[in-house]
Specification:
Helix content is about 35%, strand content about 20%. It has about 210 residues and is α+β, with helices and mostly antiparallel strands. The protein has one domain. Strands 5, 6, 7, 8, 9 and 10 form a six-stranded antiparallel β-sheet that branches. Strands 1-4 form a two-stranded antiparallel sheet. Helix 2 packs antiparallel against helix 3.
Length: about 210
């Protein structure tokens, strides 16, 4: 593990309850999660937060960091196109929306890497994943399509990439709500799981965790 990373075995971080793991959590990762949530709440009063798991094919041998870059690029492009069409039809000016994220790469008993991802949206733009039907123009399908396209651009094998939306993995964080503190605590606890040291492979050029900066 990098000498620049700090491990905590505490049950809280800056007053927020966090996941407890036998090998501890990485403090710098917790700081990243906190920073993303703070910036999102500074920009938007209401947030829609989604947890999603992205799985690579077991025989994937490409640059998986490039896959994540492509994934976010594709998702942002799809949403921008949707927003332009929507605002044009409604006769309103187009305003870009910021999509923030946190992700952690893990490799436990699986033979290939998988990613735990949190996507953070302006709730005025998205407030649900929508219809999961294959041909529906929903947020769920845009996420699914972004992952498929990013893997297919690099991988030519026969296996399919997989995506999973965990149960109770959607949160509505409203800054002016009486329930804000309770929901924030739930969100931070859920996302703190991404900061656990266990199941991550540390070494040269290994990027196990990342988050949006803006």
């Amino acid at each position: 593990m990098s000498k620049n990373l700090t491990i905590t075995h505490e049950s809280t971080f800056n007053g927020n309850k966090i996941y407890i793991d036998k090998e501890g959590l990485v403090v710098e990762y917790l700081e990243g999660i906190e920073s993303v949530l703070e910036k999102a709440l500074e920009q938007y009063a209401r947030l829609f937060i989604v947890r999603v798991d992205l799985n690579l094919p077991t025989d994937f041998r490409g640059d998986d960091s490039a896959v994540m870059t492509r994934f976010f690029r594709s998702l942002k492009s799809q949403i921008a196109a949707y927003r332009r069409r929507s605002t044009r039809l409604n006769g309103k000016p187009y305003r870009e929306t910021t999509i923030r994220y946190v992700w952690a790469k893990e490799c436990d008993t699986s033979t290939s890497s998988h990613y735990h991802v949190a996507l953070i949206f302006d709730r005025n733009v998205f407030r649900s994943l929508g219809d999961f039907g294959e041909y529906q123009q929903s947020l769920a399908n845009r996420i699914r399509n972004a992952w498929k396209r990013s893997v297919d651009a690099i991988y030519s094998g026969k296996e399919k990439s997989a995506i999973h939306f965990p149960k109770q993995g959607q949160y509505h964080l409203l800054r002016n709500s009486e329930e804000f503190e309770a929901v924030f605590q739930s969100v931070f606890y859920r996302l703190s799981y991404l900061a656990k040291r266990r199941t991550k492979h540390f070494g040269k050029r290994m990027n196990n965790f990342d988050h949006s900066r803006k």
